[in-house]
Amino acid sequence: MKPFLCLFISLLATFPITGYSANSESYERDLLGALESLLAHDQGNTAAKLETLTQSYPNSRSGYLLYADLLAARGGLTPAISQAMGHLERDVVSELREQLSIRWHYWHTIRAARQDLWPAALLQLSGQQKIALYMDIPAARLIVYENDGGQPREVNSFYASIGIAGFEKRQEGDQKTPVGVYRITGFIPGRKLHERYGSGALPIDYPNELDQIYERTGDGIWVHGTEPGFINRAPRASDGCLSLANSDFLALYHIIGDAPSVPVVIDSAPEWIAPHELLRRREQLSRTIKRWFKARIESDTPTLDRLYSRSRYSDELERHDSQAQPSSVFTGLAGDLRLEDTQLLTYPGEERLYVADLWLTHGPQTKLGIRQYWHRTTENEWQIAMEFSIPPNR
Question: Global pTM?
Answer without folding.
Answer: 0.83
